[in-house]
Design goal:
63% of the residues lie in helices and 1% in strands. The protein is mainly α. The chain starts with 11 loop residues before the first helix and ends with a helix. InterPro entries: DUF4209, ERMARD.
């Protein structure tokens, strides 16, 4: 379907409900019926405009929207008659419960403007803020706040605080897929700027103030205190910084979006407003405007590649919650047929979308913005830059026009190159690799730890440990020789396999092995959980060894250790000689196992329950190591016996697994 031929993404019933139904009644409604002279909202009068079906007493949304239309227009005209100062005096206090008073004052300004993108943006921000605030109220009574707005506004907990009739008024506008559903229609990119009546934005501001009045009365009556949950903060921003940033890119992007068939012409104002917002350093506004349009463009691709053009025009109850990012990024369609969009987008673009939108350890930008979990004022430029840059690459790639000149432009080409080689940062596989490398760096510090001078060691009698260290090193060498053929050839020396193989360079090379993260099978994900736990335990052992070594050295030099403590300290120093290669061996095994299990699963040759049993025994060893190396325990003799058993088991299993690895590769 050509983007030029699309005039609306709202199906006829939804278009009628949003754009026409609330305008059918032409009578003028007196604002004094729902608002007192001192600014009190009369909820009883508003509730009279909500009708119910005779069959089951559920809300009759058609009749309710038709009846509330003139009420909304009356509220809109009332707000337009106020100056900003008058609005602040009369209403600002009643927005405090949302923790976003300034946002509501900002959206009031939009009501006075004729710019349609401002109304849509204001509604998206307002609804996300309102959802977060309602969740805070829910937690006055309930424990686990519902994730979906529709479940939140239908909850008994909010009905207790505000009243069921009041919540039914709210459900006409947001939260119910049978009502206007303004939040979802906008956040999923179905509505164009001109399709959202400004009077509904005004009404939601009015209702929010009314909710504030009801909440104040409830809090005074119950002596409860409303607590606002802290905002989510994007951690490790450097991991999100993939694309280069360049202001010249924005100017070229403005030309690109006008030509690209990825952009629906009815949605072009949203794209232009998003780019303008970035230029003005309004990074949250930029991303809020852009994410729904990315979804719209991808939905156009999705419906074209999967030959289901009718689903582009869907915003109906039975589809609205399904034709979104979750479905478009899935391996299969809801009819179990293979989704063709991933093949069209290709792996790097799919991994970027999963990283930024879906993976639990990723930024989950759309979810967190749309549910009000992020402080909009502090939204980081780095995240906005990545979303804008990625959007530009899609606009370039998917267009009927000849985009060669744009793709080769000196500021666009680096973006295209970055996009084409993107690798997941937040899939559990990627997080495991990161864990392994962080643990490796920690263990790499061990040789630099302060050690007791050699002449001090010779003064202690009964220190015997070189034999056991040599035994362990020999066992590790045997295991390495079994696994050597699966390691990079330039990392192995038969003269000293332990020192040459168990290096930071080897682990970096192994972690650089590309493993497809898309649609990992369940066995791989279950194995990943165990491997990540093993890596975490190894890192904890390393941190404890470092802390103990530094503390005991200081105590040794200050001569504050008792005889038994001195002997135990020297046992620790002796244990470090074998623990370092043992931990590094386990880290190497983790990555080799990761590659192995992924390949074996692809060929359906895997009894992973038996395999998990072995991995859990390694996990048990590392958990025991954490216990024994704890500075308060210092059980170094037990560590020796524990390691001996573990290496024997690893050597046996590694020998057996050679056949499995050979089949897999």
């Amino acid at each position: 379907m050509a983007s030029e031929s699309v005039t609306t993404c709202l199906s006829p019933p939804v278009h009628y409900m949003i754009c026409k139904l609330g305008f059918e009644r032409k009578d003028i409604y007196d604002i004094n019926h729902i608002l007192s002279e001192n600014g009190e909202v009369f909820w009883q009068a508003i509730s009279e405009h909500v009708f119910y079906l005779e069959s089951d007493q559920s809300v009759d949304y058609i009749k309710s929207i038709r009846s509330l239309g003139p009420v909304c227009e009356s509220v809109n005209l009332h707000f337009r008659s106020l100056t900003k100062e008058q609005f602040v005096i009369q209403y600002a206090l009643w927005f405090n419960w949302t923790n976003c008073t300034e946002l509501f004052l900002e959206v009031f300004d939009v009501l006075q403007d004729t710019q349609t993108t401002g109304v849509a943006l204001g509604l998206m921000k307002l609804t996300s803020c309102l959802e977060r605030a309602l969740g805070d109220v829910y937690l006055l009574i309930g424990k686990d706040c519902p994730f979906l707005l529709r479940d939140l506004v239908a909850s008994e907990q909010l009905a207790v605080v505000f009243g069921r009739a009041v919540m039914n008024v709210l459900r006409v506008f947001i939260g119910s897929p049978y009502g206007l559903n303004l939040r979802n229609v906008l956040w999923h990119g179905f509505a164009s700027p001109q399709e959202i009546p400004v009077k509904y934005c005004a009404m939601l501001i009015f209702l929010t103030a009314g909710l504030g009045q009801l909440l104040q009365a409830y809090l005074l009556q119950t002596k409860c205190i409303l607590v606002h949950r802290p905002y989510v903060i994007f951690a490790s921003l450097e991991e999100l910084d993939i694309f280069p940033g360049n202001h010249e890119t924005l100017s070229i992007a403005e030309e690109l979006v006008k030509l690209s068939s990825f952009v629906l012409k009815t949605m072009l104002p949203f794209w232009m407003a998003a780019l303008t917002a970035f230029k003005q350093s309004r990074y949250a506004d930029c991303v809020i405007l852009l994410l729904p349009q990315l979804e719209t463009g991808l939905r156009l691709l999705f419906t074209t590649t999967n030959n289901c053009p009718n689903r582009l025009l869907t915003a109906e109850v039975k589809f609205l919650s399904k034709v979104d990012y979750d479905l478009m990024l899935a391996k299969h369609l809801d009819n179990e047929e293979l989704n063709q969009l991933p093949a069209v987008l290709e792996e790097p673009a799919m991994e970027f979308l999963w990283d930024f939108l879906n993976h639990q350890e990723g930024p989950r930008v759309r979810d967190r913005l749309s549910h009000g979990e992020i402080n909009l004022k502090a939204f980081p430029r780095e995240v906005a830059n990545q979303i804008v840059a990625f959007a530009i690459t899609l606009v370039c790639r998917f267009s009927d026009e000849d985009m060669f000149a744009f793709k080769e432009h000196m500021v666009i080409k680096p973006l295209m190159n970055c996009a084409s080689c993107y690798r997941s940062q937040f899939h559990p596989i990627s997080r495991l690799k990161k864990q392994v490398l962080e643990c490796t760096k920690s263990i790499h510090i061990w040789p630099e730890l302060p050690m007791v001078p050699e002449e001090h060691l010779q003064t202690i009698k009964g220190l015997e440990g070189n034999a056991e260290v040599n035994t362990f090193i020999f066992m590790i060498s045997e295991i390495i020789s079994q696994l050597q053929q699966y390691m990079p050839q330039n990392c192995y020396s038969s003269d000293d396999p332990v020192s040459s193989v168990l290096t930071e360079r080897l682990l970096i090379e192994l972690c650089d092995t590309h493993i497809c993260t898309l649609y990992s099978p369940r066995p791989v994900l279950e194995v990943l959980v165990v491997l990540r736990k093993i890596s975490t335990q190894c890192h904890q052992v390393s941190k404890q060894v470092i802390a103990s070594a530094e503390l005991r050295y200081k105590q040794w030099m200050n001569k504050t250790l008792r005889s038994r403590q001195r002997h135990n300290y020297l046992r620790m120093l002796n244990s470090i000689k074998f623990l370092s290669p043992v931990l590094r061996l386990i880290l190497v095994l983790i990555i080799l196992e990761l590659v192995n299990v992924h390949l074996v699963c692809k060929k359906n040759l895997f009894d992973y329950q038996q395999y998990l049993k072995f991995l859990k025994s390694v996990l048990q060893y590392t958990e025991n190591l954490v216990t024994y190396t704890n500075p308060e325990k210092n059980k170094w003799d037990e560590t020796v016996a524990l390691t001996n058993k573990a290496l024997i088991k690893i050597r046996k299993i590694s020998d057996r697994k050679l056949m499995l690895m050979q089949v897999a590769t």
